[in-house]
Amino acid sequence: MDEQRDVRGAPPREPGVTTGALARRLGVSPTTLRTWDRRYGLGPAERAEGHHRRWSARDIGVVEEMCRLTASGLPPAEAARLARGRQRPVAALPRPRRAPAAAAAPSLERQRRGLARAATRLDAPAVRDLLAEAIDRHGLVGAWQDVMVPALHAIGRKWEQSGDRYVEVEHLLSGHIARALHRGPVAPVTMAAPPVVLACTPGEDHALPLEALSAALDELGLPQRMFGASVPVEAVAAAVRRTGPRVVVLWAQARSTASLPLARHLAEARWGVRGARGGPVVVLGGPGWAGRTVHGALRPATLPEALTGIRRLYPELSADPGPA
Q1: What is the pTM of this model?
Q2: Could you give the residue ranges of the DSSP H alpha helices within the chain?
Q3: Which of 10, 130, 214, 267 is deepest in the core (most CB within 10 A)?
């Protein structure tokens, strides 16, 4: 059967997608799409008077490319120029040039900015891909230290300056980071050594830095017991008593959750038979411990410092330096 045509003999046009529907699909706001249209000309190519704007498949391809490029850290104006150029018909593309020997990796600042922008747009696929790329490029510890933490801080500043907006952005980014941290390889635990116990102090809900340390310990093949956020005093004490750890890591993001009595109690804990009694080394992690000391406790400022200190307590590890 012949294709149905309109009164002028042309095939009927596709109905297209509304701005609101496209915004939901891309994870951006309708205002963002209108701004890109106004500033960079990335709107629908065809407009009908008296009708809502409709985005064709070609129009959608352009803004999808815009989202991908801005998520990679490109400034919006440059991303818009490239997005328009990459959506030309295949027949109009210039003959390919010889590729350079090696493409330059995006700068750390560009990677951080791209990750924060993707999270702000609630563009979950882009956030997931950017996190995977960062880990592949820098390793788990480097990606955490140089990309993830700065992006989280940028979102946090935005939240503080906007009057409690962007909470959903912080939750989305934190959730994806937590999953990305544990997607890497896990070295088998072959040593018969006491574990590392990791726990947030009572009332402390910010467990993401502890997740990063847990994932890094997995890469080393160190035995560990991860207890997560806001662990009650009794539960921490019971875990230490039952597992006999060599190291206990207590994370406190806020000063109000940094429990000195708990840290001192664990640092003084002893077990074993008389003459061979031992106890754990306590590691105080997080800004909540600033200005507070516990005799014999380690106070690393960064994830690499924490790993270095913990590795020294496990001579059973091979000579391989592992992540740094």
Answers
A1: 0.71
A2: 19-26, 30-40, 57-71, 76-85, 108-120, 124-143, 149-161, 167-181, 208-220, 233-243, 260-267, 303-312
A3: 130
